[in-house]
Amino acid sequence: MKSIDSLTPSQIVAELDKYIIGQGNAKKAVAIALRNRWRRMMSDDAIRDDIMPNNIILIGPTGVGKTEIARRLARLARAPFIKVEATKYTEVGYVGRDVESIIRDLTDLSITMVKTEMQERVKDKAAENVEERILDLLIPPLKKPAGFGTSTQRLSSSTDSEFNPNVASDEELNERTREKFREKLRKGELDDRTIELDVKAGGNPTMQIFGPAGMEELGMNIQDMLGNLAPKKTKKKSVKIKDARTLLLAEEAEKLVDNDAAVQEALERVQTSGIVFIDEIDKVAGGISGSGQGGPDVSRQGVQRDLLPIVEGSSVSTKYGLVKTDHILFIASGAFHVSKPSDLIPELQGRFPIRVEMDSLNEEDFYNILTVPKNALTKQYEAMLASEGVTLTFNNEAIREVAKLAAEVNSSVENIGARRLHTILTTILEELLFLVPDDIHEGTILIDKDYVTKQIGSIVKDRDLSQYIL
Ligand SMILES: Nc1ncnc2c1ncn2[C@@H]1O[C@H](COP(=O)(O)OP(=O)(O)OP(=O)(O)O)[C@@H](O)[C@H]1O
Ligand SMILES: [Mg+2]
């Protein structure tokens, strides 16, 4: 069986096709980048470290799937993924965040991801432990007579418990009750019983350490240190057994996971398969090349210069250890309406060798976006209303009409790509979403072309109105 890691480029594209309509070139580019990683991992030791990732710039208007492609790719590869906006990093050292925080955040994500996976793997064992713990609370296990003097009665009867028939039957009795309760517990008969748990008192909420930019790292370490010094407080809490199960399950699963191994794997994963998506890269590309008269250009270039080391490959210190960024895949994106990729500083251009232009979406694409993906908007609304007992269905003409209107409004007002489908659908369904469940709480609602026209036909025709509503 093929594992996710060894999907071929065309298989990766096929996976992406399930969620993203069109954009064949972009899909190809990211598929190659992903496969190249695997190729690198499989390659000869001598050359492996020299093979660089194929960083990509996705160029295209808003709402055509740039972010979506990167996000899906990361999910497919089970890769730690972070999306950042290049503009957040303007005026570094003063207002913006330092770029190394990108890598630290990505590492945090990787840790969570790996731990979650590991906990998932031990969840059966954890569930067993939880059952034992709940049983211990319900029927405390018998205290083994510890030496002499625990009980005067026992002392007087016999000093050797093994030959005492009473003690043996106590144990047996206890064991039998336990099994009885175990059965009840499994059947869920005790779900509403309340038990008392020791729960960790939530962390150290008031501790916050502020520092100047670049000191984040230090701040974090201090916080960790103090956090470890502070005594771990627990407090008693009464909960229903069904809720206790969830609480204890998290605790037990955490206990079963080897923390050091998790950190090790998470660091490895971030370094070999992390993906950083840098949005709005065009906004930090200098508009007028060679102006160099200070002003915004300086800070824009500053951001690019700051980004350079992490894109080129450097070591970033995180609270889990050093993270080498050499093989992290960077996908940058931007509309590049005013600036061009060639306005980026040359060093950075060189680090993003692959440029892909995304297509703007037309009526046919919109129709497909509404029907093909598993998570298509129409299906999302159907699922939401199903939870209220109402069956929502869109017929084909209605969907055609929505696609047509989206294309119309995009060309007459502003092209916001597939995001237009969101605004149009919410407007069409607003009334219905309000009426359920008070006035409509069952049955089937068919959305046809007439319904669509009735809800938004007049808005679409009125350009001023559609500017505000759609
Ligand atoms: N080609 C597509 N196929 C399917 N869904 C799409 C496509 N393009 C966009 N969408 C949907 O539209 C929404 C916006 O897409 P996305 O976030 O990828 O836009 P973007 O290209 O990153 O835009 P921006 O430049 O504004 O960040 C998402 O909900 C996404 O599901
Ligand atoms: Mg985006």
Tell me the overall shape.
flat
Q: How would you write the strand order of the largest sheet?
A: 2-5-8-1-9
Q: From the 3D structure, determine the CATH topology of the largest domain.
A: Rossmann fold
Sheet with the most strands, sense and barrel status: 5 strands, parallel
**Distinct compounds present:** adenosine-5'-triphosphate, magnesium ion
Oligomeric form: single chain
| Tally of DSSP β-strands | 11
Report the end-to-end length measured between terminal Cα atoms.
47 Å
- The tally of domains stands at 3
Q: From the 3D coordinates, which CATH architecture of the largest domain would you assign?
A: 3-Layer(aba) Sandwich
Summarize this structure briefly:
This protein is of the alpha/beta class. It has helices at residues 9-17, 24-42, 45-48, 66-76, 100-121, 123-138, 152-157, 165-187, 216-229, 241-256, 259-273, 296-312, 346-351, 363-371, 377-386, 396-412, 419-435, 449-461, 463-469, and strands spanning 56-59, 81-85, 194-200, 234-240, 275-279, 315-318, 321-324, 329-334, 354-357, 391-394, 444-447.
What does this protein look like?
The structure is a single chain. The protein has 470 residues and is an alpha/beta fold. The protein has 3 domains: 4-118 and 266-357, 3-Layer(aba) Sandwich (Rossmann fold), CATH 3.40.50.300; 130-144 and 164-256, no CATH class; 363-464, Helicase, Ruva Protein, domain 3, CATH 1.10.8.60. Helix content is 53%, strand content 11%. The chain has 19 helices and 11 strands. The strands form 4 sheets. It has a 5-stranded parallel beta sheet with strand order 2-5-8-1-9, sandwiched between helices. Strands 3-4 form a two-stranded antiparallel ribbon. A two-stranded antiparallel sheet has the order 6-7. Strand 6 and strand 7 (321-324) form a beta hairpin. The protein is flat and about 85 Å long. The chain binds adenosine-5'-triphosphate and magnesium ion. The site of adenosine-5'-triphosphate (ATP) has 18 residues, from helix 4.
